[in-house]
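Input.
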Amino acid sequence: MKALNNDIYYKPITYENVISTWDIVRRTCKNKRAIFRYHVNKNSMNYNIYQILLNGLYKPLPFRLFLIFEPKARLVMSQTVGDKIVNHFVAKYYLLPYLEDKLIDSNVATRKGKGSKYADKLINDYINKIRINNPESEIYVLKIDISKYFYTIPHDILMEKLAKRIQDINVLKIIKTIIDETDKPYINNIIDNLNKKYGTNIPHYEKGVGLSIGAMTSQFLAIFFLNDLDHYIKEDLGCKYYVRYMDDFIIIDTDRDRLKKAWKLIEIELTKLKLKINPKSSIVNLKTGITFLGYKYKIDNDKYDVTYRKKTIKKIKKKLVTLKKHDLMKYYRSYGSYYGYLKKIKTWEREFTMKAIEKYDYFKEKNPKKIILVKEGSFYKTYKDDAKLLWNLFGYKWNNSSIAFGVSNAGKIFDKIKSQGLGYITIENDSSTIEIQGNDTIYDSYLNISLINYEKYEKKNRLHKMLDELIDQNMNFVNTLEEYFNTLQRGDGKSEEN
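Output.
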């Protein structure tokens, strides 16, 4: 829908919307230490963001820049939690409502219900349709990659495109504030230091050009920036079988010359946007095979096949083996994300659901002086010594070395634990965590008392069981046992018969 007034900015700015955006960031942010620090003062921090947005005073804090090296050296620009919340807020309430419905279906990157899996589905559908309608024809694929896409998106052209769809000066102002952060001198200074330290060749950001890498707004703005080109390719050039994933796109056709012509015309349009095509771009026969998003598509002896690059599979397996040895939590998270990509491989087993007891053991090893509480469905569970501690505190029923209590009672339980000076960590269903600090000495004291009381409890249970068995065998034991217990209570030491 097209924005026709200047009320767009203020309408969604409510404290409740800021809180809901914080909840999204809390669940999705990988930096759990930063999330915990923010969570400690979340009410005042969220209210501060609400006031900043309401008064149009947003100014981002500097990025934390670092490199990752899988599969090659890449720059990561990490935001503070507060800046992440603002970015998610802008994307959710200003970008998605006014731009999402203008995107073509085959623009698949970072969009809900799409991604690489949907791209794979489209490509398979396209190729199979061509083979059915043109069984004797050769199939060609034009594969284009834009060189240094995120570093070369011009701010002025992007803002012009946005202004056509979002006619609210305040919305455009906050978007410009976000994207102009790459103009700050510290960005290129840090890039220089990283290049010098690691011998890499990460490019500079030119003034007025480029989007930050990793921000929610950057992701959406990058898929939107080429939207007019998408429509041009599909509608004006008539390329029906077209898929774009961010800056990588392919066009499938039976006419090689038509693809050559399309390539030249697309290059002209990209030049207008001040973008360049990567020299590696090419047109190939599907009999040779093409790779796209890690999949390899090929027709061999009239048989169409989709496989996975051996290099990709080898890299993934190596990563998972390392994680399983050193970080079980990250292993299961990574396995879950890779499973959808690799499930077509028959030898790939479905084992990415981490059991509650495994989560408990993982966090307990790292936090031995805190109570670990794992959410499973609508219950929180704890195990082993922590279960004994909660059993002693609350008298919950003991069940196979674990204690469980419902989410509805969780608030009272958490408050009681905290009031005793005990620290705890909750692990939610999505594996996000909340950590509350406590006193290690108090934990040790409570645990020692709980272990003593639990030992008494177990001994009593054993005695009850023994008595039940004796009485079941012979009711005459009752009088003998009563006499023996009376003797013990009197302190006589031994019965009269002995």
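The first strand starts at residue 64 and ends at 68.
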